Amino acid sequence: MPTDQTDYSPIFEPIKIGNVEIKNRIAMAPMNMNYTDPGGRPSRQQLAYYAARAKGGTGLIVVEAVLATKAPWASTYEKYDNLSIARGKEIRSMANLAEHIHAFGAKVFVQLAVSPGRQGSAEGSGIQPHAPSAVAWEVQPHKLPRGFEPQAIFRALGYQGEIPTTPEGILELAKKIPGAHLGGELPREITVDEIQELVRDIGQSALHSRIAGYDGVEIHAPHGYLMHSFFSERSNRRSDQYGGSFENRIRMLMECIRSIRAKVGPDYTVGVRISASEDLPGGFDPHFTARIAKRCEEEGASFIHLSDGSYEAMNDFLPDKDGQVVEKAAIIKQGLGIPLICPSVHSPKSVAKALREGKADMISQGRQQIADPDWVNKVSEGRTGDIVRCTRCNLGCIGRFMLGLPGKCDLNPMVGQEEFMDEYMKRTYAPVKTRVWQTMQEIGVEPSVPMPGEL
Ligand SMILES: Cc1cc2nc3c(=O)[nH]c(=O)nc-3n(C[C@H](O)[C@H](O)[C@H](O)COP(=O)(O)O)c2cc1C
Question: What pTM does this model have?
Answer without folding.
Answer: 0.93
